[in-house]
Design goal:
This protein is of the alpha/beta class and about 240 residues long. It has one domain: Class I glutamine amidotransferase (GATase) domain (Rossmann fold). The protein is about 30% helix and about 25% strand. Strands 2-1-3-4-9-8-7-5-6 form a 9-stranded mixed sheet, with helices on both faces. Helix 1 links the parallel strand 1 and strand 2. Helix 2 crosses helix 3.
């Protein structure tokens, strides 16, 4: 195992652009499939930075490996190492910090605008971002804010779009890791789950329109997050 650990939960919620950023920075990283038991027996005192990716399951599902992962995240929190959670990963961080995860009345999907909160003005996680920008979304659950957390991003569909906890933890409800290839993969395999009659969802055509430009802009959003995460770990 390496000093950078990425936790995944399905074969189609990959590190995406995060992997490319790490490769370009020549940072070795390990990817573990928690749902396949690959976190069992891992030295939790080794990683210096942890990223938690998404997945179709809910934090509230009765899956034993979720308890294993939450226990590991609590250990990392005690070690105060930099962590960044993406969608399910953000919800897992929230649960590890004692917050509730709840089902929304609708699904939020597609390229949805989010806005920075007043608290975000002083956050180094958000320093590279404008007041409003789009992020790729696909979720039906949402996290409450843990005690002591700062809400950093919000929008009309989901009040808690991102939070920071302490100096080292960022949880994001959306998917900043998405690249063009990953968006096309999801839409090829899972567009039948979309319902664009709901105003909170975009159609497949809307998501694909101008995709190279949208993906490139999202990559810039993600890179700011990942640069700060790595700086915290290795400065």
């Amino acid at each position: 195992m390496t000093d950078i650990l990425i936790l995944t939960h399905t074969d189609y919620c990959t590190p995406g652009h995060l992997g490319r950023v790490l490769d370009e920075a020549q940072c070795a990283f390990s990817v573990l499939r928690v749902d396949l038991g690959e976190l069992d027996g891992v030295d939790l005192d080794r990683p210096k930075a942890v990223a938690i990716m998404g997945g179709p399951m809910s934090v509230n599902d009765a899956l034993p490996w979720l308890n294993t992962e939450i226990a590991a995240l609590k250990h990392f929190i005690q070690r105060d190492i930099p962590m960044i959670g993406h969608c399910l990963g953000g919800q897992l961080l929230a649960r590890a910090l004692g917050a509730e995860i709840s089902r929304m009345a609708y699904t939020e999907s597609g390229w949805q605008p989010v806005q920075q909160t007043a608290a975000a003005a002083s956050s180094p996680w958000m320093a590279h971002l404008p007041a409003e920008f789009p992020i790729f979304q696909w979720h039906g659950d949402t996290f409450a804010l843990p005690v002591g957390a700062q809400r950093l991003l919000t929008n009309s569909w989901c009040e808690n779009q991102a939070f920071a906890w302490g100096e080292t933890i960022l949880a994001v409800q959306g998917h900043p890791e998405m690249d063009e290839e990953l968006v096309r993969l999801w839409l090829n395999d899972w567009s039948h789950l979309l319902d664009d009659s709901q105003p909170s969802q975009q159609s497949k055509a809307q998501m694909l329109e101008g995709l190279p430009i949208k993906a490139a802009a999202l990559n810039q959003v993600a890179e700011g997050f990942y640069r700060h995460w790595l700086k915290l770990a290795f400065a």
